[in-house]
Design a protein that fits this description.
The complex is a heterodimer of chains A (453) and B (195). Chain A is an alpha/beta fold and 453 residues long. In chain A, 53% of the residues lie in helices and 10% in strands. Chain A has 23 helices and 10 strands. Chain A has helices at 3-11, 14-36, 41-57, 59-72, 83-96, 108-113, 115-120, 131-138, 155-166, 175-192, 218-224, 245-256, 286-291, 293-296, 306-310, 312-317, 328-338, 355-359, 366-376, 384-398, 401-417, 420-423, 444-452, and strands spanning 76-80, 101-104, 125-128, 195-198, 202-204, 209-214, 228-234, 238-239, 264-268, 276-282. In chain A, the strands form 2 sheets. A 6-stranded parallel beta sheet of chain A has the order 1-10-7-4-2-3, with helices on both faces. In chain A, strands 8-5-6-9 form a 4-stranded mixed beta sheet. In chain A, a hairpin with a 4-residue loop joins strand 5 (202-204) and strand 6. Chain A starts with a helix and ends with a helix. With 195 residues, chain B is of the alpha/beta class. Chain B has 6 helices and 11 strands. In chain B, the strands form 3 sheets. A 5-stranded parallel beta sheet of chain B has the order 1-11-6-3-2, covered by helices on one side. In chain B, strands 7-4-5-8 form a 4-stranded mixed beta sheet. In chain B, strand 9 (172-173) and strand 10 (181-182) form a beta hairpin. Chain B is globular. The chains are: A alpha/beta (453), B alpha/beta (195). Chains A and B meet through helix 2, helix 3, helix 4, helix 8 and helix 10 of A and helix 1, helix 5, helix 6, strand 8 and strand 9 of B. Strand 9 (264-268) of chain A pairs antiparallel with strand 8 of chain B, so a sheet runs across the interface.
């Protein structure tokens, strides 16, 4: 199935689609207000992009420096070429520690690697502790948004889920009461956990430390109760110095939710007393993407989700329509790099409006990259026989000026005299969801010729 | 070949950086006349409350007068001004804090632009107390309020201890229909007292 087909399914519930659209747009508005309150916002974006590009260019040097400094602080650093290797490393660490109950804070990387199913299949209980992630975990589905994993769900659905899974009262749909039910359940799991897994927002090459941002404090609770902390990160998460952090921290939460800063910005430098800290550095296609100049910029993404909140296609099709670990504009660039055939329709889930580029704190030129993917993926996603035939016909006409002029005249005549429902009827896929533009009375060539006289 | 060698090679091989990192970004100096007011407003937006206290006697008075501190059965204190309360014996592991009412912590530095306070616990017990307590009071020096995070990182050594954190309001979530709920996993209330 293509994105468009899945989106059609999402849009069948028009009321929900409208609600989803408005819900995400309100995040975009919060982001706008937060950005407008920062006088040097554009300078921050500029600085952030410059730092990240520099790190990408010098990545091997920064990675090895980070490894050395992290080890000097007592952390153990592991390297994983791909998802399978990452999962084996984490599983091995848990087995070695005898950990069978694990709590995890938000990490898109472990989603990407499929860590949960890997561990569950081997008898290790892994509990997502971010509330949104916990909700989708209990529903056995993937996050529909990287910052708000359960943004596709109504409170009544979450109430019914919690009633079935956590024993909250039937019919309860108040967000505060539901959050409390989850808090009670998860508190027990935090206290019983034998290991905590976290993602990483930033890794500091200069100090060998990692930074994790949460609003709930779940990364902090999950690493202070159990003695074993495993932090999983993509190799692109590095920044040179601790003093570069403010540039990113000032952009991240404002772009994501409109907050000035997340409730907790935790800095880990080495293991806690009596504990162990393992850091897993994961490539999983990143070095390949970096080698491809035109898409390398996508690796500067800091996962704020702003491109999703603003995207007219994402807002009206829902994250699950992308059937990808990372949905939305940035996902549509990253996912085809991982599995071109499976995600070939994603670069078309875009009207090239450019709104994502305008809000991206790293100024990633997403529309340009999506366009580049379309030509790249033509072998996988050609849009079916009808579009191929249409493009062949267009090419035939574009190569023959006289034919083109004649067809233009025919179209102008048809637009004038034929009823709209003939031209835009069921047979015409172009007019599904679009109105035909008004027909111009004269061609450009005719206007131009007259002007020249 | 090990995974490490293979990844480093795929990235072009480990060499010393060819270029120096971009010079540190510093914003134009802010024209804040009242950093405390700005901090208090930022913290309020993050769901916390700020108080200015005038000197040690005002702090002692505030500790005496605070109804939550007075009512707390179990209380963690990193402040010399107030003794901890452990009716069932002093805690020995983070798990002993499962029923902690109040944690009084010492913050180092406060950021006016966001309402965050830098806090670096001395040990793992203090670290656990800050997240398991129902209510947290961070006491920080009034002279430690800086305009923004750039000024904060210029002053701090964030790598001095295994763990340090910018705390910006109480634990919260908006994962259910974006309705803000305070007290997701950690504290349900956060106060910052600047002395």
């Amino acid at each position: 199935m293509t994105h468009a087909e899945r989106a059609a399914g999402f849009l069948r519930d028009a009321e929900r689609a409208r609600w989803h659209d408005g819900s995400l747009w309100s995040l975009r508005e919060k982001r706008d207000r937060a950005a407008a309150a920062v006088p040097d916002w554009e300078a921050l974006r500029e600085a952030a992009a410059r730092i990240k590009r520099h790190v990408l260019a010098e990545l091997p040097a920064y990675l090895t420096r980070f490894e050395e400094r992290a080890q000097a602080r007592g952390a153990v650093v592991h390297w994983a070429r791909d998802a399978a290797e990452h999962n084996e490393i984490v599983e091995g660490l848990l087995r070695e520690a005898g950990a069978r109950r694990v709590v995890k804070s938000k990490s898109m990387l472990t989603e990407e690697c499929g860590l949960n199913p890997h561990l569950e299949a081997r008898g290790i209980e892994i509990v997502d502790t971010d509330l949104g992630e916990r909700i989708v975990q209990l529903r056995h589905e993937r996050p529909s948004h990287i910052v708000m994993p359960a943004i596709h769900l109504r409170r009544q659905e979450i109430g019914a889920l919690f009633h079935a899974e956590l024993g909250s009262p039937e019919g309860e749909s108040d967000p505060t009461a539901l959050t409390l039910a989850a808090r009670r359940d998860l508190r027990a799991r935090f206290l019983g956990a034998q290991a905590g897994i976290t993602g990483v927002n930033f890794a500091i090459a200069e100090t060998g430390g990692i930074v994790v941002c949460t609003n709930e404090g779940n990364a902090d609770l999950g690493t202070v109760l159990p003695p074993l902390h495993i932090a999983c990160m993509g190799i692109e998460k590095l920044i040179p110095r601790a003093a570069d952090l403010p540039v990113f921290l000032r952009l991240l939460a404002r772009s994501a939710t409109g907050q000035a800063q997340t409730a907790y910005t935790a800095h880990f430098h080495g293991p806690r007393a009596g504990g162990a800290l393992h850091i897993v550095l994961v490539d999983n296609g990143r070095s390949r993407l970096r080698a491809r100049g035109e898409f390398a910029d996508a690796l500067t993404c800091i996962r704020c989700g702003a491109c999703m909140n603003t995207c007219p296609v994402f807002r009206r099709s829902g994250g699950h329509s992308y059937e990808a670990v990372i949905p939305g504009p940035i996902g549509s660039v990253l996912e085809p790099a991982r599995a071109p055939a499976a995600h070939a329709s994603l670069p078309y889930a875009c009207s090239l409006c450019g709104s994502c580029r305008d809000v991206c704190p790293l100024r990633i030129d997403l529309p340009r990259q999506l366009l580049a993917w379309r030509s790249e993926l033509a072998a996988h996603e050609s849009g079916g026989a009808l579009r191929r035939a249409g493009l062949r016909a267009a090419r035939f006409a574009f190569e023959r000026p006289r034919v083109y002029a004649a067809l233009g005249a025919l179209a102008r005549w048809a637009g004038r005299v034929l009823p709209e429902r003939w031209l835009g009827g069921r047979w015409n896929p172009w007019t599904r969801g679009r109105a035909l533009p008004p027909t111009p009375p004269k061609s450009f060539r005719a206007l131009y010729a007259r002007r020249q006289k | 070949m090990s995974a490490r060698e293979e990844i480093v090679r795929a990235l072009g091989g480990a060499v010393a950086p060819a270029a120096a990192p971009p010079i540190l970004y510093t914003p134009a100096p802010a024209h804040d006349t009242d950093l405390f007011a700005r901090f208090a407003a930022s913290l309020a937006a993050a769901g916390g409350t700020a108080r200015a206290l005038d000197g040690a006697s005002a702090l002692a008075e505030a500790l005496r007068a605070d109804p939550h501190v007075a009512a707390a059965r179990r209380l963690w204190s990193s402040l010399p001004e107030l003794a901890p309360r452990w009716p069932d014996g002093p805690p020995r592991a983070p798990h002993d804090f499962a029923q902690l009412d109040v944690a009084l912590l010492r913050g180092e530095l406060a950021v006016a632009e966001s309402g965050a306070v830098w806090w670096a616990p001395r040990d793992v017990l203090e670290r656990a107390a800050a997240f398991l307590a129902e209510r947290v009071v961070l006491v920080a020096p009034r002279a430690g309020v800086v305009a923004d995070l750039h000024a904060a990182y210029a002053r701090l050594d964030v790598a001095a201890l295994p763990y340090g954190c910018f705390v910006c309001g109480p634990s919260k979530t908006a994962d259910i229909e974006q309705a803000l709920v305070i007290g997701a996993h950690g504290p349900r209330a956060l106060e910052v007292w600047l002395v």
